[in-house]
Amino acid sequence: MYTVLGDSGSGKTTLLKLIAGFIRPNSGRIIIKGVDVSDLAPEKRKVGMVFQNYALFPHMNVLKNVMYGIDRRNRDPKRYARRMLKIVGLGELEERPVTLLSGGQAQRVALARALAHDPDVMLLDEPLSALDASLREGLRRELRAILKERGITSLYITHDQMEALSISDRIGFLDRGRIFEQGAPEDIYWRPRYERTALFMGICNIFKVRRMRRGRIFTEIGEIPWTQEKPELVGIRPESFFRDGSGLETRITVMSSEYRGNVQVVFGKLGNTTIKAVLRSDGYHAKGDDMVLFFDHGSVIPLETGEE
Amino acid sequence: MTRGKISAKAYVFAIAAVFIIMLAVVGIVIYLETISDDDTHGLVIISYTSFEQWGLGPETVKIFEEMYGVNVTLKTNFGDVGQVLSALDKGEYADLVIGIDNSMLRTALKLDLLDVYRPDNIDRVDPDLIFDPEFHIVPYDYGYLAVICNTVMMEERDLPYPESIMNLSQDVYKDQIMFIDPATSSTGSSFLIWAASVSGEGLGEYLEDLSESEFNVFPTWDGMYNAFQNGEAPIGISYGLDTASDHLFTGSSTTVTIVPENEGYRQIEGAGILKGARNRDMAEEFIEFMLTDDFQSRVGYNVMLPVVPGTPVDPIYLEHGVWAREHVEPTQEVVREYYPDWFSSWEDAFY
Amino acid sequence: MGKSSARRFSGPLLYAVPLLFLLVFLAYPLLVIMVPAFTTSGGALTLGNFIGLLSDERSLSIIRFTVLQAMVSTLITILLAFPGAYLISRYRFPGRSALLSLTTVPFVLPPLVLGIGFISIFGTNGYLQSFLDMVTSVLSLPSPTVGILYTKEAIVIAHVFLNFPLVLRILYSRFNTLDEDLLNASRSLGAGPIMTFFRVLVPQMRYSLVSAASLVFTFCLLTFGVVVVVGGMANATIELEIYRQFTGIFDDPKAGVLLAVEMFIVALSTGVYLWSSRKKDIGSRTSRGAGLRLDRAGSRKPLRMVLIILYASLLLLLVVGPMAAVVHDSFVEEVEGEEEYTTRWYRTMLSRENDPTIGVSPMGAVLNSLMFGFLTVVLSVPMAVITAYAIDRRPFRGKKLLDGFLLFPLGVSTIALGLGMIKGFSQGWPGLAGTWIAVLTVHTIIAYPLGVRAVLSVKRSIPDDLVRASRTLGASRLGAFLSIELPLLLPGILIASVFAFTISIGEFGATLMVSSPEYTTMPLALYKFIAGGRDFGSATAYSTILMFVTFTSILAMDLMARKSTKGEVGI
């Protein structure tokens, strides 16, 4: 499962359209399972696609929808369709008109339909973004399980970082039509390379590195011992700050403090920049207070801007 | 929405199949109709509706067919001769046209539709009625234009019966008279010529006053006559034998027909051979046939009078018919020259 | 490109079909009529005829009258319909839904039947006169003569009859989508009901009003049948005058000039209509909104009751009145000055004998009409679908113009079209004029734009992803169209079919010009009965038959529509 993360306008949908065959590339080729499909019409490529708003055919019931893409040569399409429905857990709903399905059910039917087509590649275009948050989690896991079990290479599009992290084998970041960074979720999460990736991963405290001298780098958040090459930027996760500890520290003036149940999110001013810190919830900070934040040298992540 | 067992594809196929079948059926029907519509054999005569509807056409055609052993096709889906000319101008085919009168000849010639033919028996016809000395058109019947009045309404509204058509422009007749458009009706154009002949130089003024008497201007004589029968207005423009024909067909009449004695305008109808006629010989025969007794004795069906003097006329016509002693029809040269002006005066006055 | 099958329906091909059809059967005939207006007899281009027009008093007054009567008709219709629409949308009262369905009737009624109904009611021996006579004799007053028929006023009144229900319906649908919160907000801010009405409600209706007005205006400009029957030759509109010029075999340039002027005006009003009918007024609720809440209690208030009754009666009178008059007249015969009930007219009308007045038997004309109606559907619906596909694509330079041209027949002069067909095709291809092909093409051209709009609006509601999904599942573009889009387009296609059918059945002007005796349709036969037959009775009987045929066909189609779609197929 390869997830493509990107903002709107980054070209995610275009990418899918290219692979599915709705757009032809100006240059380059598209190769699926070793076959160059760049000149093939969409229906000739074996791609399965799951859409954001399910795209179920409203004039057919569940079973008919799932049967739609089954190979002509299949001798018992009904049986196969039923099997697919069972896999997604909707075995009893085959007669139901698709307009009467809930969001979660609809998406499962869409998945079953695409699976029934026996695709080489599965394309999923933000399939869960139309669903409620509670549904999303469960369905997410199911999706991954089913696709993994059947061993189908899948391309998953989303803008939700959490989703990407939880279901992917690999994540790629798309910006203005280019994948500028990709890697396994853990790598991406802990060691992103580019500023944009970092931002995506929730690292919002990013500081410019002014200079480096004698094993230290000078940044807006202060001096930090550094053994590697001089990075362009450094980033620190909001979760990496603590109220007490040892090691590096910085002083901020509290701008706002939000209680979120399990954590306290504090925004503070440091010089010209703002720092976001996610702290344990047992503490209160009034606006205007000064406070000290501690962080570990190991939680400083070097980043590049990635501008050419 | 329950679709049942029919898949979307089958449904679409079903609709397509139905369409195609119906299309095929219709196509076959039309094809059959077309091949039976064969008018290249036999004589094709074009005329206006009443020619066929009132019986003159069918009866005489039958006689002709028997006499000569030919097939005759009548095309009469035209309310007025003007429409006949229009159709011919636009490519409608016929060998012979029946019904072009002395007001429409000018247009027919302008459209260059007619060939010339002088029938051998032309001497039978009253020379006074031969309005085309070049014989593009051979006259076969005529009628007097008349003012018709509904006696019941005239009485209700206390209206005097006009003694001359010049009277019609008087104030007492305001909004009481039904006229006919000379542009679209031969009766209308005949009336215009009649008015021009009687009023002379004063036509413009006469028409201006006359327009005050207008109840409506109908596009065709049929329309006007229909409305007259329906009692829409008391006075209309029609023909001298109208009262007589009422008596003939229904035994009584509430119509008074007025033809001023010294203002007789005769609308003379004629037949002509069309350019490009395929059955010219047949057409010529028919024209000559039209001047024989078999035909002339029946023109009464058309509510017209025969052009051959001495032809027997229905006694009811003789009893109730109205005609004039003096006639005012202008020559074709005069019509050709002045009609456009007369027409403009009409338009200026009435529209 | 590649060796693959078509990715999408090729744009040029889609446009080509309707374009070709229109160019040959619409543009060419119209040009045939208009070209003489722009050329001298020698063949040189000239504007001389136009300049001549400026000094031709008669032509100018015809143009003036045409525009004036259209404006007055529109104004009166809107003023009458606006309060009515408001009342019906706001208050519930018994018979409300029946009244609503009544408003769609004139849409399907051939205008000529209205003309006859008009004569029935307003004629010298019509119902109005009888009514007045009765009233005045009871009151011992002298009875006035009803002099409405054959006047300019008659044309305006007839137009109101024709268009009132349509406007009522357009405004009513708009009222239904108003956001009531806007009105409530206005009241909460201190504005009374009257002020709210004028400052908040009416502005919200802006575009609908403009849309309805421009539509009615266009219709009033282009009517022919009604004008000639109800107004006579002395109250000519441009359409009538063009007809007159041609049947009278006159001055071609004059007709062409008038046509050009008319088309210019119509193009403007049609343009306004197309523009305003696409606008979504700000503040309309989306489909979830319920619009103005039906005020049940309010309808009990006496003043409102009176108003409602007034409007219901007005609507009934305008819609049902003419039809009832005609039906009643068809069973009546005047024998010796007295009125007797009879089926005599029907016996004549239902005969299979050839009637020379009309060229076929009365029943033959019915058959012809049905046949043409059906063929028109067969031809125009696919064209409408193709055109809808052509229009619903990404914009390119000149697209708006091209699309406008494709929808142009919405506002075309039927007389000119018919005349142009005859003229244009009689010299080059003898035999086309007067054939059923000519009638069919003319009907198709007039009918298909409405079909396009119906199909287009349904098509736009189909999500793009559906087609993509089906293609990823292995369907070719054509396959996707057949299995997915076509079934979903069905409601639109059915509406388009109904439109095509009704328009074909009721079409008069162009058919009058173009058909030959054996292809006489019902409206044509009807016209000949009015203008050519010896009796009004036949005409009324035939009208009734025409109404019957039209209504049952619509009913049949509507039933079919209900069966195959989720619900009703509204206009």
Please explain how this structure is put together.
The complex is a heterotrimer of chains A (308), B (351) and C (571). Chain A is α+β, with helices and mostly antiparallel strands. Chain A has eight helices and 17 strands. In chain A, the strands form four sheets. A six-stranded mixed beta sheet of chain A has the order 4-5-6-1-7-8, sandwiched between helices. In chain A, strands 11-10-9-12-17 form a five-stranded antiparallel beta sheet. In chain B, 43% of the residues lie in helices and 17% in strands. Chain B contains 14 helices and eleven strands. Chain B has helices at 8-36, 49-53, 56-68, 81-89, 105-110, 151-156, 186-199, 203-212, 221-229, 242-250, 280-290, 293-296, 315-320, 332-350, and strands spanning 43-46, 72-75, 96-101, 114-115, 138-150, 177-180, 214-218, 235-239, 255-258, 266-274, 305-306. In chain B, strands 1, 2, 3, 4, 5, 6, 7, 8, 9, 10 and 11 form an eleven-stranded mixed beta sheet that branches. Chain C has 571 residues and is mostly helical. Helices cover 72% and strands 1% of the residues of chain C. Chain C has 25 helices and two strands. Chain C has a two-stranded antiparallel sheet. In chain C, helix 6 packs across helix 15 (302-330) and helix 8 runs antiparallel to helix 11. The longest helix of chain C has 34 residues, at 57-90. The model of chain C is unreliable at 1-7, 282-290 and 566-571 (pLDDT under 50). Chains B and C meet through helix 1, helix 2, helix 4, strand 7 and helix 9 of B and helix 3, helix 13, helix 17, helix 19 and helix 22 of C.
